[in-house]
Description:
Radius of gyration: 34 Å
Distance between the termini: 73 Å
Number of strands: 16
Order of helices and strands: EEEEEHEEEEEEEEHEEE
Largest sheet: 14 strands, mixed
Oligomer: single chain
Amino acid sequence: MRCLTVAMMLVCGGCQFSVNALAPNGLGQSDLGVGGDLATVDTDLAANDLAPGPDIADPCGTPPALGAGNIAAQCVIGSPPTIDGDLSDWTAASLAGFTHVSAAQSTGAWDPVEATNDGDSSARFFVKWDLNYLYIAAAISDDIRETPNNTGPGLTDNDALEIFLDGAHNRTQAYDSTDWQLIISADNKKAAFQNAVAKTFPSGIMFALGGASPSWNVEVAIPWASVGGSGTIGRVLGFDIKLDDNDSGNTTRDRGLVMYYTAVGAGSPPCSALYCRTDSFGAVQLQGR
Length: 289
């Protein structure tokens, strides 16, 4: 069947329109012709049309060597732990032991049998980090939970975990604004100190307790603003933890366990205790995944 081209002319007082039937192949060459007000299509992409952007470095990648004696904090950018007291999102094998045998300093009436001590007061702990927080988790073994004190310095005489931080790792005797002694009692109370002086607990710090009593778990997320600077791979902070155990229910604890390589009593007066000098702290170093 032959398709005929039909032309129709309409005249309206000087206006002229032309309507053409479709060519046999559907669209006439000029039906969608590019006018002068439309830019021509670039049919051959220039080299820079889809040029890749600069590579984005993995902030968890290529950590420096771990410093001697430093605790490694695992980078968890993109998969932070949930602060809920449930440690199932922390790999159990990564938790470091914290016992009477491993502690650099301990006080109290410990048993000659270390297995008894471990059940009485011990812990496993781990440290992680991302761009927002330093994360600390501890699974604490305890045979008796006692929290007779309610506020302030007395919380150290409860079953409690103490966290010591030297944000600049400048190892001064006195605390500065980025150094903290944080106390979290097993009954969910909290306190903060600098130079043995009570301070407002730093805003933004999150923590949660869990576990089956009398043992207990604690998870803590400390924003970088609290210790200055930012989460950057390789960063080193002064760090230590102390485990307080009260078995008697009295307002003074009957033993304490101080973590790791701390040297309580280092330095000279007026104060040589861990809680009032940051040069006694150990260190944590931000590492990779």
